[in-house]
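Sequence only, no structure available. Ideas?
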Amino acid sequence: MSDLEPRRRSSPSRRARERRAYTLTLTTGGLALLTVVLLVLAVFGVVGFGTAFVAALLAGGSGLLLRRTLNP
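Reply:
I predicted one. Tokens follow.
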């Protein structure tokens, strides 16, 4: 009883995880759509494949973060 400091929570609250998962879902979906659009534009020669590759990397990264959020 000598330690009167409140205990730290090891994980975020359910509401915080829900908010993070929702935000990551929207982000991942938007980046995936952007990747497809950039790939189509790259095929037609409007933009380079580098921008589509960067968008694909970002979509993959946010997808991994989403997966990690959903499976604690």
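Residues 31 and 59 are 5 Å apart (CA to CA).
Hope that gets you unstuck.
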